[in-house]
Specification:
six-stranded mixed beta sheet, five-stranded mixed beta sheet, 29% helix, binds alpha-D-glucopyranose
Length: 747
Amino acid sequence: MTKRTIFIAVMLLSGIAFLFPQSPVRKLPASTEARIDSIIRLMTLEEKLGQLNQIGGTWYDTKTERLNEEQTAMLKAGQIGSFLGITGAAETGRIQRIAMEQSRMKIPVLFGYDIIHGYSTITPIPLAEASSWNPALVEQSAHIAALEGSAIGVHWTYAPMVDIARDPRWGRIAEGSGEDPYLGSVLGAARVRGFQGKDLLQYGSLLACAKHFAAYGGAEAGRDYNTVDLSERTLREVYLPPYKAAIDAGAWTLMSSFNEIGGVPASGSSWLMTDLLRKEWGFTGLVVSDYTAVMELMNHRIAKDSTEAGIVGLSSGVDIDMVSRIYLRKLAAAVRSGALAESVVDEAVRRVLRVKFVYGLFDDPYRNARPEKEKELLLAPEHRAVARTMAQQSIVLLKNEKELLPLSKGGKTIALIGPLAGNDHRRDLVGTWAWAQKPEHVVSVIDGITAKLPKGSKLIYDKGCEIESDSGYRAQKAVAAAKKADVIVAVLGEAQRHSGEAASRSNLDLPGRQRELLKALAATGKPVVLVVMGGRPLTLQWEADNIPAIVEAWHLGVESGNALADVLFGDYNPSGKLPVTFPRNLGQIPIYYNHKSTGRPLVPTDKYTSRYLDVPNTPLFPFGHGLSYTSFQYSAVTLSSSSITKDQSLTVSVSVTNSGKRAGEEVVQLYLRDDVATVTRPVKELKGFKKVMLQPGETGTVTFTVTSEDLSFYGLDMKKRIEPGTFTVYVGGSSADGQQAVFTVLP
Ligand code: GLC
């Protein structure tokens, strides 16, 4: 066994800000601020409100690809500050020219669009990318999205979505980085860096927009848009860190969310949008509301009419009204009646103009109006290559009994069965938020496997059933095909429409009759590999009990088929780890790894402890879980000291050995537990991770530096604090196992 010591120092993030210094652009030069003030002084009240008005283009509002006459007239009158959903370098350039040449103030407009995981080159959905636990690769993925967004004339993407989600019934869990604030913060910051690049003035960068501020993922019962009711401590410890990390990574815009939090709608909350975001965090960028969220303050019944909704939204700190046009239509009268101070309008306009300056639009309003870039950048081969690598690393090997995977290299007959395997469901493979996608750009599973079919092997395909409708159920035919094979690969799961916005599900089993088909396939006695596709954890207890090999493939984007074939045939050794817990059944939800002890933690032999009668407390697959085609052994954890003071740091080391026959990557995870504190603390919290490649027989030493900031929490007074006492360290390949050690923080 060769021993090559790899010294990998992972500086633990003291609250994330450590790795990403306070954004360098928080304060603009005084000269720029002076220019902004001089512009505001020249503007009429209507023109100011125009800057705060965002209208939808194309299918959002106009149902056509071009602005209608009314909107063109609004543009000339200076009543539009930004657009949602207008794409095309030529079209955005044409619209910008109207603003720059035919309006009085000649203020450039911003073009925003949802480029969540690619534009033409759709990469895996963000929840899949999070399974890679590879911030550098996630950043690269966001960067190619920014290049393609720039090519279609867009300035601003409404991403990254950084909402923590602990409830897989919520369809938008697909759009974020899962349940953990640390992983969500690191990846949210990586996406901001990827979208904005090193210099926002450079071509190929997009303004990022951290959304949905805040705690949208905490919707009760996982039902989209539903009430969120959290303690301030849970808000600050779990849901807020990723937004702060995105801002610290340089994000200049946030999007306010639809939901209320404890009785106050986020899009009308002065505590959230001003006291916390501007005063406590020092954010000087802009907040855009979510789609009609200003109008929806009336639905929340905290505003009696649209004027009041506009006053509440703007006064709380929501600067741009996305498509409800209330600011434009109602607030001039509100200012003139004295119901709203013009200084509030001016401050919002200042933030909008600040962002337009930061993006260089006053110097070059046509910076992205370069139609020749579309041909050069959209679906560029190097973009596809990144998408394939990203997809490979997004795949999680959940189970692999008797090393059924990888499929042997040659001379076998493979039965490929399932509605998501064929060429007729390629659109589903790209997942949610991929409207521009063209199915012909997507490599299907059957195409990917065919391209890599080993010499002498044979592939039989049968759809077996539809994703969810009863019609087309043809298990007999599929079973007949399967009986001729040596191994069955069943590709089952959710359609594109099953996750994303307005896609909550109350039943998380495989949709339709897919499990029935799977049972028929398993009954043949042939070995079955189950590939699960979808935008969320599904309830797979029967599958886990009866299927020897299970791969979570999420929705992997344009390179789905190639990446899946790379993994199934062993050309890429899967390294993914779950960014979210997989429940055994719906009844366990919400279930997440960083839970509290309770006063009666489970004692298996004691009925009167926190448990169910009908299901274990443990999940089906835990946060951080993911297997490899090789195996990794962990040494005992060593600590640089058994105790530290509050201002000292501690070095945590572990040796990891590849004890298998294949090279492979392991995500070494570090968790901490504050053993006793003046408020209840989670049983463990992720505080660091490192992905290491090890050759067969190779040993690497992974070192983490724990700083006292990592030990802090919000005390009874809601102020960050560190308390003396013991802390337990866990280092391992998942949240459910790991080597332990204990150290003491001295008084
Ligand atoms: C949607 C979504 C938001 C998106 C916006 C613009 O309703 O909630 O994520 O960015 O509207 O499309």
